[in-house]
Amino acid sequence: MPYFVYLLECGDGSLYTGVTTDVERRLAEHKSGVGSHFTRAKGAKRIVYAEPHSDRSRAQKREAEIKKWPRAKKLALVQ
Fold first, then answer.
1. Per-residue pLDDT tens over the stretch 65-75
2. Is the dihedral of CA 26, 29, 30, 31 positive or negative?
3. Which residues pair with 19 in a beta bridge?
4. Domain containing 72: what range?
């Protein structure tokens, strides 16, 4: 089962980074308020980026890497 690292755009334009096995389901969870505190407060808008990984460990390492990046680098990844 592939894991995905995704970037979600929030209602205020901020970006949220997460890991899931089902991007569409996770977006629906964020939108319904079942997501993180961050997206509950900011409002989930849409997935702007997703990349597949073969296992959870690799996906979580990549998530941690991306979360350390400045906003400009995250936006460049989305492009």
1. 999 999 999 99
2. positive
3. 5
4. 3-45+53-78
